[in-house]
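Q: Could you fold this chain for me?
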Amino acid sequence: MRPTFRYRAFARGDVNGFFALAVDNLAMLVAMAGILMGIYRMPAEIVLGRMLPGTAVGVLVGDLLYAALAWRLARRERRQDVCAMPLGIDTPSLFALTFGVIGPVHAATGDAHRAWVVGMAVMVVMGASKLVAAFAGDAIRRNVPRTALLAALSGVALVLILYFPWIKIVAEPVGGMVALGVVLVTLVGKVRLPREFPAVLVALVAGWAAYAIATRVGYVPPPLPATGALAGIALPWPSLEFLDGLGEALAYLPLALPVALATVIGGIDNTESAAAAGDRYATRDILLVEGAATLVAGVCGGVIQTTPYIGHPAYKSMGCRAGYAIATALAIGVGTALGLTGALIAHVPRASSCRCWSSSGSRWPSRRWRPRSRST
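A: Sure. Below is the predicted structure, expressed as structure tokens.
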């Protein structure tokens, strides 16, 4: 009789993974709030009280389900080193939907509630379309060479993980360069910190401290994005208000559907990347979770879709299992519902957080995770 296998979801590496993934999602939420409140002057009660909590539900649902898939894979293969797929708020759709859907509706009507309802409707349609497309994921992955899938993923990673954060660091180097130095020494140079303290947390604290010291000695920083203060408890209950915006949402589908389908392709690429790192997830399962998380977020008031994040091999190289995904899901979902997200991010320099954002992809996969030939 085979001995009982128990997967230990939490390991020391999950602490690093949690800070990398959680700060990434927090940066997306604050960017969303900054655009809608700072540029389009939408009221805080709609953005912080409805849109952010609903969007965070997608992260909550998606990361918990990906953790469950990791637990199932670990049980099936009897391995402790299974790493959950990271999931978070999609960066391209953040800009596409805020500048292309929500903002223009608010500018045309002057009605923030109307803009929110139309955004919800667009999200629901996107989620439903992703669920349908998920059933073609395995066929695409079987018939497209691995090199083609990973090459496309590498190109996107260079832009989202390297280029965008680097622009912010160069524009605001105080704090950002300090955090970058910690990341390069620890995660890239593999220098262990005393007592194996989490490198991402040290990078964030070091950058934040350098920023604070510089301001004390006379440095005048640029203004932080307008995210508001503590918004109070805002529970994202399911709502059918999106039905009122479906008619108007149809006009925005030529923009929304390509963005949704792009994350499906990204999900296929990321599944192949995880397989190259040793964790062979079913493509359909990864895509179904992505679609379900987007759909649930839309029904609960969210306006930005979620997607599997680039960097599963990097999270695995940190020693992550499933615990970092569970912790991120709870921190983002519960923290945003309690109104803590805006208050936290408003006090963290963007350049420091961007370095932690890109740290999730800053370490190349080690030799044991080079792509292998595909098994039949």
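A (continued): DSSP finds 15 helices and two strands in the chain.
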